Every structure is written in C-alpha cells, then in structure tokens.
Amino acid sequence: MIQFQYERVSTPAAALSALSNSGNAKFIAGGTNLVDLMKRNVMSPRKLIDINSLPLKHIEQQNGKVTIGALALNVQVADSKLILEKHPLLSQALNAGASAQIRNMATVGGNMLQRTRCHYFYDTTLPCNKREPGSGCGALQGFNRMHAIFGASEHCIAVHPSDMSVALVALDATVLVRGPKGERRIPFADFHRLPGDHPEKDTNLQANELITAVEIPDNAFNQHAHYYKVRDRASYAFALVSVAAALNIDGGMIKEARLAMGGVAHKPWRLTEAEKSLAGKPANEDSFRQAAAIAMQGAKAYKYNAFKLKLGENVIVEALKTAAQKA
Ligand SMILES: Cc1cc2nc3c(=O)[nH]c(=O)nc-3n(C[C@H](O)[C@H](O)[C@H](O)COP(=O)(O)OP(=O)(O)OC[C@H]3O[C@@H](n4cnc5c(N)ncnc54)[C@H](O)[C@@H]3O)c2cc1C
Q1: How many percent of the chain have pLDDT more than 90?
Q2: Measured from the CA of 209, which atom of ligand 1 is nearest?
Q3: Which of 13, 32, 55 is the last residue of a domain?
Q4: Does the Cβ of 213 fall within 6 Å of ligand 1?
Q5: At 10, which CATH number?
Q6: 286 lies in a domain?
Q7: For ligand 1, atom 17: residue with the closest CA
Q8: Domain-located, residue 178
Q9: CA-CA to 227 of 20 to 30 Å: which in 45, 175, 235, 315?
C-alpha cells in the first residue's frame, strides 16, 4: 500500500483549497471504489481529502426539480420517499447496483466517478490506455465479453459501470460542480465522455472541481418507469446490459419516452432516436420492437461480446413492456 496523507474538510471552500494546495490529491467519499483502486496500485494519490463532513447530503424538492447532494448515500436516495414518488427509476437503478453494504457507504458523486471494471484496467501487469496512456488496449484483442458495443475507440473499449448514472441520464439530470472559478452546471449527458484519443479521461469534470449536487427536473415518468439489468449473478454483479425505460402514456398512446442503456459504452448511453420513434405510437410490443431496432443501429461487437447485440434489443423491449404495464 502506498503512503498517503489524510485531511478532513468541512466546507466546500476548504475542500477546494485543500485540493489546489496539494499535488496528486483525491477527494474520498464512501471510498468503496477509490480504496480498492489504491490497494491494487491502479491509483496512487499522495493525499486523500475526506469530504464526508461537507453539508451535501440533502434530497429536496423545490422550483420544479429535485436536488440531491453529492454526498447523499446510495441507500438514502434509493429509499427516499420523494425519490420513490417522483423518480422511481432512479431508486430501482440504485437498488440494482452493488450490495446493501456498499450502497450504505457509496455516495452519489462517488458513484458517478467510479472507474471502469475492465480487467485490463485493474491488472497493472496488462496494457491499458486508460490506466497508462500509450500502453495499448489489452481488451481490444483480448477477453472482451463485458465491453462496449457503442462509441468505443481504437484506444479503449471499456464501459462505464454505474447503474445510477443510466437512470440519471434518462431523467435529463444536471450535475452541479464547484471549482476555483465558481459554480457550473453540466448536463448529465455531457458529464461522462467517450474514450476517443483520451480514454484516461472518464468525464468532463476538471481535476480541481467538486461535484456538489445533481438536479432532476420534474417529469411525468413516475407511473411508467422500469430499470432492467441483466448480469451474470442475480445480485452483486455489474451489468452485461441494462436499460432505463420511462414512458408518459395517455389513453394507451405514448406521449413521451426516455431510454438509456448501461454496460454498452464508455458513458451511460442515451437512446434519443429510439425515444423519438416512440412518441405518438401505441404503447405496445410492435412500437417497442421498432424502437429497439433503432436503438441498436450502429452497435459494433468484438470477439466475445456479440451476444450483447441481441440481448440489448430484447432488454429494451422487456424494459419498455414492464414500464408500460405498471399501473
Ligand atoms: C464489489 C462491488 C460491486 C459493485 N457493483 C456495482 C454495481 O453493480 N453497479 C454500480 O453502479 N456500482 C457498483 N459498484 C460500485 C459502487 O457503486 C461505487 O464503488 C460507489 O458508488 C462509489 O462511491 P463512493 O462514494 O464510495 O466513491 P469513492 O470511492 O469515495 O470515490 C470514487 C471517486 O469519486 C471521487 N469523488 C467522490 N465524491 C466526489 C465529489 N463530490 N466531487 C468530486 N469527486 C468525488 C473520488 O475522488 C474518487 O475518484 C460496486 C462496487 C463494489 C466494490
């Protein structure tokens, strides 16, 4: 284990100042991902800035949106009466992730910034452009069963592992961040990046910024929403493919739809063309199959993950069917 300094801060300003005063420092929230990465020498920060005392645990409704503090625990959000009533999709996605013990520690900000579960990223004896830029991508020609079918590059085919983020991108969330120059807002769809030439960058958050909250605008998707996750074990496993589906249905007709996939790209993958195809259609299997076919256009498989193409299509249909059937 590497040696590191530890500092606890109690205000966002102190957190930012501690970060700017130290080279190679990282915030630590629940620690459920960062500490694992440090134990495996994948990340070696020289300083940990403990942000758990910051007043960022709120979950509140005001001005047509729900605001969730970056330090709200995954369990707290999933069990929140407000979230269950207004955004059940988010609650379902959170409960599909990790284990109860991890959800008791994990925070919203940490969940968004958790790193890929690609084996080549975690194994420091193997090449990985994300861990060590320029070293190559072991997964490209290697065992790529868990890997991307959308938006990959020749430098990286890893996927983003967060379930929560798939629901948040579908729900048009916005990320609130604070840095040395003040506050800024990042649409959730632009928060995570595709790998391109710089797979070492997972997100558009700057190294000197703190996530303070996530906002979800009010919507009419709380009746018909479903998060469907397919994984190797029934619990405590990352998604092979997951789908967040939400429908606004009136008299059997779809007024509006939201769809996003997990386990298929370097970022939570929003399916806007498929959403558009659903608007104005009857809420039935034909419409869902057409939307799924549109959603999967442009998907590209590698040697061991071709099963995701058919699986992805079927999971979209099943997620939409289940969402539509909810009373
Ligand atoms: C065995 C296991 C199984 C899992 N299964 C799943 C699963 O199925 N689905 C799923 O979605 N997740 C899963 N997870 C991942 C888990 O959800 C994440 O580890 C957790 O959400 C990370 O949150 P944290 O608060 O512990 O983050 P930390 O580990 O504390 O931090 C993670 C990163 O975020 C940064 N950070 C944290 N908060 C902020 C902030 N406010 N501003 C800026 N930077 C910040 C830290 O510097 C660090 O780089 C699993 C984890 C384990 C160990």
Answers
A1: 97
A2: 43
A3: 55
A4: no
A5: 3.30.43.10
A6: yes
A7: 111
A8: no
A9: 175
CATH no. for residue 236?
3.30.390.50
In three-state secondary structure terms, 211 is strand
Q: Atom of ligand 1 at shortest distance to CA of 210?
A: 42
Dig out the tokens for 304 from the structure: 């061991």
CB 273 within 8 A of CB 259: no
Please report whether residue 121 resides in a domain. no
Number of domains composing the chain: 2
Mutate to test the pocket of ligand 1, among 6, 9, 26, 34 (most ligand atoms within 8 A of CB): 34
CA of 297 to the centre of ligand 1 (A): 31
Question: What are the angstrom distances between the C-alpha of 142 and each of 17, 137, 193?
Answer: 42, 9, 23
N-terminal to C-terminal alpha carbon distance within the chain:
52
Question: How far is CA 287 from each of CA 183, 247, 293, 313, rounded to the nearest angstrom?
Answer: 42, 12, 10, 13
* Amino acid code (one letter) for 159: V
The predicted-structure confidence for 165-177, as pLDDT tens digits, reads as follows 999 999 999 999 9
Helix (H) or strand (E) holding 270: strand 269-270
Structure tokens at 192: 């995570």
Does residue 290 sit within a domain?
Answer: yes
Whether 15 lines ligand 1, by a CB cut-off of 6 Å, is no
Q: What's the pLDDT band for 23 if we cut at 50, 70, 90? A: confident
pLDDT tens digits, residue range 275-286?
Answer: 999 999 999 999
**Distance in angstroms (rounded) separating the CA atoms of residues 78 and 108:** 11
Say how many Å lie between the CA of residue 29 and the centre of ligand 1. 8
* Nearest to 319, CA basis, from 280, 294, 289, 277: 289
For helices 285-295 and 307-325, give the axis angle rounded to 10 degrees: 140
What is the CA(51)–ligand 1 centre distance, in A? Answer: 14
pLDDT tens digits, residue range 195-245?
A: 999 999 999 999 999 999 999 999 999 999 999 999 999 888 999 999 999
For residue 36, the CA-to-ligand 1 centroid distance in Å is 10
Could you tell me the residue range of the domain that residue 5 belongs to? 1-55
CB of 302 closer than 8 Å to CB of 264: no
For residues 165 and 270, what is the distance between their CA atoms, to the nearest angstrom? 11
